[in-house]
Amino acid sequence: MHASLRRRLVSSALLLMVIPLITGFLTGCVSGAKVDRMVVGIPGGEPVAGSAVANEKLRQSVSVGGVEGGRETYRLWVSQISNENFKEALSKSLKNSGIESENPDQARYVLSASIRKVDQPWFGFDMTVDTVISYILTEKSSSKVLLNQEIAASHTADFTEALYGPSRLRLANEGSAKQNIAKLLSSLQEFDPDRVSTPTH
Predict the structure, then answer these.
(1) Among 50, 181, 196, 200, which is most buried by a count of CB atoms within 10 Å?
(2) pTM beyond 0.85
């Protein structure tokens, strides 16, 4: 291969990589984790594999309470997971699993969440985000804590999914949050709220 042709190919490849970066910077398109990409399960579809839908004692009896620890995303900074979006994703996931109460005021239990850690890389071709989220399930009538569980999850978004780094980071955020919720649903599958005497960890 001639040197001039090789240089043109390299220049073209670099241009394809740089254009999305420049466009993203000029448009300020850094966005936070999107709700639908954090939701586990399909509305009206088959039950989530390994989810709590088979647990009759939790069926349509849980509402989502407060969510804390998240961060808002600023246009010229890095993608984050906000409290509002994570709460909505958690609520939709519970609904898809059949355990969210149709009327929050009539829910027997309240599930709250605290985003303890969102460990993000500053740069990289493949970006991995680790999340640690604490979940607390409380019986509404007695304020008794039935479940207190901290869950860690991880997700990697590779270079082929998004050329623009901040978009790739957002995908990693969303994937990690979704995996975290999925692990929660799995742990609730055989959870029996009537047999809890002390908070479980």
Answers:
(1) 181
(2) no
